[in-house]
């Protein structure tokens, strides 16, 4: 048994990252899906820079949202199947603390690559430098939110055979505020307007989700295990 909560946290984070890198095909799916969606828009709509600049924030953020959904279903699936979740629930350490590294690992392998790809995609969609910086800021604040919120829905549906559709129905409405304020910030930056209000709102949501989501995930896992 792990001696301290901190050692448990780092051990679980390391374990999930190692397992993710052992399945490199699955690891590459979310960023490739993100890149593919964004790259198809200039071909399907118009290659004109003026048109692309106007729709770029929505394109990139919708692609990020769909990519996050694409990778969420397997977040707890393997651990539920092999009994790891039951062992975590029986651990002397608080379950909300033990599920946090799993969410962090999910963000590192799905959200962080989208953040790194964003400057290239911003260049592809002819975004200005202020809009690109705003895009990076919103992705840095928003993609962890996608992982935290999505993990709650994943924990609720992990015991269902075909929980993917239900997961989407549960999570998508909760993603809407993130989508609205993130795209609004990028659009405002492109127009030369201040974006502090949108960023403060996203930061407040991230703090709230970081505090409450682990508790909700732990409760959802206990429900799924019962």
Automatic annotation (TrEMBL):
Ranges annotated as spanning the membrane: 27-45, 51-72, 104-127, 133-158, 165-193, 199-221
Presence of the UniProt keyword Lyase in the record: no
Entry's Gene Ontology cellular component terms: plasma membrane
Pfam families, sorted: CcmB
Molecular function as annotated in GO: heme transmembrane transporter activity
A GO BP entry: cytochrome c biosynthetic process
Keywords noted in UniProt: Cell inner membrane, Cell membrane, Cytochrome c-type biogenesis, Membrane, Transmembrane, Transmembrane helix, Transport
Membrane topology: Multi-pass membrane protein
PANTHER family: CYTOCHROME C BIOGENESIS B-RELATED, HEME EXPORTER PROTEIN B
Function field: Required for the export of heme to the periplasm for the biogenesis of c-type cytochromes.
Similarity-based family: Belongs to the CcmB/CycW/HelB family.
NCBIfam families: ccmB
Protein name: Heme exporter protein B
The organism of origin for this protein: Methylomarinovum caldicuralii
Organism lineage: Bacteria, Pseudomonadati, Pseudomonadota, Gammaproteobacteria, Methylococcales
